[in-house]
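quick one, 363 residues, struct below
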Amino acid sequence: MLKRVGKYIGFVALWALVIAVVVWANSLSAEHNATTAIRSTKIAITGGSNTPLIDNRLIEEWLALHNLTPDGHPLDKTDIATIEATLAEHSAVERANVYTTYDGHVNIDIRQREPIARLRFTDYDMYLTKEGYLLPATDGYSVHVPVITGDYRPLFDPTFMGYIADMVADTIALLDRRIEELEESKIPHFEALKDNNARLREVTRMNVKRGIFTSDEEAEILAAALKQRKSEARANHSAVERSIKSDIAAIESAIGDIRHKQKEIRIIESELDSLIAFLIAVGKSDFWSAEVVQLVATGGEGKPLQLSMIPRSGRFVIDLGTTERLREKLDDLLLFYHKGLDNIGWDKYRKISLRYDGQVVCK
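---
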């Protein structure tokens, strides 16, 4: 019994000692953090390949703009979470990791976004990344990627910043809610149809009630009046029914328009996905990344996306057609470069069309 009590006492004493050490260590750590000032901020930026969008100076300016420059502040007053969240708000930052060291340094590790093209349509000037993220072009930094011009009308506004997929999902969801609202708006019309039918049934079930003293002449008058009333009721029923069904048809037409719009949006998203895959393939090839200087895009607003390419070599324009089989068209073009233009000369043609499957048409 005494041994067991001794064990319990020893166990409690050990835990009391552990707790005391932890409290003491926390107290020392808190005192250290309160008295140690941030000595320096080290910024490391990765990503972007040879196309940087940001540098240390821009990050320092971004932190200063938000009053988050850590240098000189005590360790315990340095809000790491806020610094990370603020850095992530910068359009060129894909992700940020911020941490402090015991001796008073702040380390900021940033992964920057990597553009694969610059969109320069009318009123538009933004970069597109391989993840389908759109960000505004920044002053003073010109990224060496293919430029896409033309009269193409994108899904997004000139001020949009974010993922195309998210924007599409939000737009589809918004249209879905509108469809639900329109579907609900049909309910009162269906109720009105039921009420209209009920009123007609009520009239058509009426019969002339001939009293004991009702003469044949009076009965005929009553029957004629009831017949007239039923006729008017049927005519009124038809007119009301046509009006209600016309309203329902208008709602159905509006729903159909919205579903068509959703289909168009998904098609446009698919076209942009194909374009992004094409641009990624271009960026992975040393030859094509140097050769593809500019793309001209047309279409949008219900019309298919059409592309033409202005290469660095030659004096011709390459008609790529729609976004279908873009990768294969690139392979066809490379084969034509080697087996065609190398033999007949690079200045012979002004237009090369890859619009048709497996064909290279030159003019």
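The helical segments are 2-35, 56-65, 80-88, 164-185, 187-204, 216-284, 286-291, 326-344.
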